[in-house]
User: What shape does this take?
Amino acid sequence: MKTENRLFRNTGLVSLGTLSSRLLGLVREMMMAWVFGVGLVGSAFVVAFTIPNLFRRLFGEGALSAAFIPSYIRVKNDQGPQAGWQLTRNVLSLLVIVLGSITLAGMLLCTIALQWNALPEKLEAVLLSLRILLPYMIWICLAAIAMGVLNAHRKYMVPAFAPCILNLLWILALAGMQFVPGLYEESKVIWICWAILVAGLLQFLVQLPPLRKLGYQPGRTIEPFDPEVKAILRLMGPAALGAAIVQINVVIDRILALWVADYGPLALSYSERLIYLPLGLFATALGTILLPEFSHLVQARDRIKLGETLEKSLRGLMFVMIPAAAGLACLAIPIVRLVYERGQFDATSTVLTSRALACYAPGLIVFSAAKIFVPLYYAHGDTRTPVKIGALTVLANLLMNLLFIALLPSGWKHAGLALGTVLSSLLQVIILAFIARKRFADVHWLPIGISWVRQAGCCLPMIYVAWTLLHVTDHWTQWLSVPLAIAAAALVYLLCAWVIRCPELRELRHQ
Assistant: This one.
């Protein structure tokens, strides 16, 4: 019980930091919608920003981090703290070498390509932003590794709030450009790119003081290819391949969205921001805690506690995600209108974005489940299985995307990309869960399934109350009617959960 209480208390701390970042991110997207609407310049920036984020997820939050954290915990426990810090220095130096080389090569290629007079307008807009954004991946990957080390020491405060820096500087750039008259949209995007670059550096620097307090010293002895680093690279290899496949697929999705329509990437980005708010607040926060927690349980060979932690995480997380998914799907139009519709973002933009949101909403459930299962594999040192499953689901995603683009009418094709992502992620989670039950932990799916059915049942009166209130208060300002409907719906859901005695309500209340 003590471990479970600590798990959810730490999750709460990470959730608070994530909530701050997500709320700032929502404000950022509201300002982006106001300034750019769903035009080509903003969409090209979204595609460009996807590239450094690919490497962030690959080398920072993804494969390298997943391989490094269990190895760091093992080396620290077996060989002592100084060996752990030496491993950290070696990994950070390797990142600088590899990512620095990729950045220089990428910036050179962008510069050469931009000299071509016959370059298509959409590609030129992407490359102009990408050339500035590429160095961001160095700093943000270093920040992600520092975050992983602090999390391994169960120090969650600074890593949880560090991502707020990006959104704060982004917002300041958007606000500052309003005081400069005559700026073209292209110039406004350049402002944002430089703000992102500075933010990446600051996210790394703010984590150095707590690292030094724990005992980290930069040191002069650096061996980026020592045996432990090579072991991490071998462990990382399959996961890197899987992450690369998945992230390249994300880039392809963005390119397909831009190909379908100028508004495609921005409509998907705005809807994703609304998805990321509950996803980051609960699922990402819990996944951040679970990797080191699973790693400690695996080291202790406590299979029973591992299964109990997994089951409780699945039930508790879905207690929040199922109603969130139902609410976002059913109230997509009023929510998008409330959040974004102003400035360059008009009623047509609301319709296009709400279609993508309605298709993304069920993904809250499957994306959340993946945040729980993938760390379980990484904690066991199994990075190959997620790769194989990832390759299958990426192929399924690409095929479904092409199918939806071909079959859906204009104005819905970009939403089809969102639906394809959700369906392929569902396939991934099903396979991950099936294999995990056989290999790692005895998961009892019947009580979990019953719990999910109860939670889904509580959503029916919740949605009815929300729609009724929106109809009754139709003549009110949306700043009152929509929040009132959402608050009433949440209250009804909790009341129903209390009436039918959902155990998750009691468990979460007692943390």
